[in-house]
Amino acid sequence: MERLFQHAAITDGITVRVSVTFMPEQSNVARQKWFWIYHIRIENRRTDTVQLKSRHWRITDSSGLVNIVDGVGVVGETPILASGDTHDYVSGCPLSTPHGSMEGHFTFEREDGSPLEATIPFFPLAAPATIG
């Protein structure tokens, strides 16, 4: 089944697509815990090979609390993408409010060793009104 990606950003030949899904079975409104999973697809439309080295996330909840997350690779991987390659992964985000957002960037290394910062598009995190 092909996933419907709701958000996308293109930076210098790197496309980052995002699909987000609220997970009511992993959320607990009584304990002020809401949880989403997000599926990321990275597409290399450049003519050279790049390697994903790090991620930078800005996660904001509806009370205005901002959490910055920096780390090596994605879900324990630093994938190498040749021209035309894609890389998919799934991760999750808990919040203490029913709404929020995520955005950020991935840093890649080009074949010549220089960095390339690719935008992760802004995407909302929103629990259905009946949930929270």
Summarize the structure.
By secondary structure, this protein is mainly beta. The protein has no helices and 9 strands.
- CATH 4th-level superfamily: ApaG domain
Task: Report the average pLDDT across residues.
Answer: 95
CATH class category name: Mainly Beta
Could you name the CATH topology?
Answer: Immunoglobulin-like
- State the end-to-end distance: 30 Å
Q: Tell me the major beta sheet.
A: 5 strands, antiparallel
* Total discrete domains: 1
Which structural category do the helix and sheet elements fall into?
mainly beta
CATH architecture: Sandwich
Written description of the protein model:
- The structure is a single chain.
- The chain is mostly beta strands and 132 residues long.
- The protein has one domain (7-126): Immunoglobulin-like.
- The chain has no helices and nine strands.
- It has strands at residues 7-11, 14-22, 34-44, 50-61, 66-72, 80-81, 86-95, 99-110, 115-126.
- The strands form two sheets. Strands 4, 5, 6, 8 and 9 form a five-stranded antiparallel sheet that branches. It has a four-stranded antiparallel sheet with strand order 1-2-3-7, with no helix packed on it.
- A hairpin with a 2-residue loop joins strand 1 (7-11) and strand 2 (14-22).
- The chain is elongated.
Keywords:
single chain, 132 residues, mainly beta, Immunoglobulin-like, 5-stranded antiparallel sheet, 4-stranded antiparallel sheet, 9 strands, 0% helix, ApaG_sf, Co2+/Mg2+ efflux protein ApaG, ApaG_domain
Topology (SSEs and partners):
Blueprint: E1 7-11, E2 14-22, E3 34-44, E4 50-61, E5 66-72, E6 80-81, E7 86-95, E8 99-110, E9 115-126
Organism: Altericroceibacterium endophyticum
Protein name: Co2+/Mg2+ efflux protein ApaG
Domain ApaG: 8-132
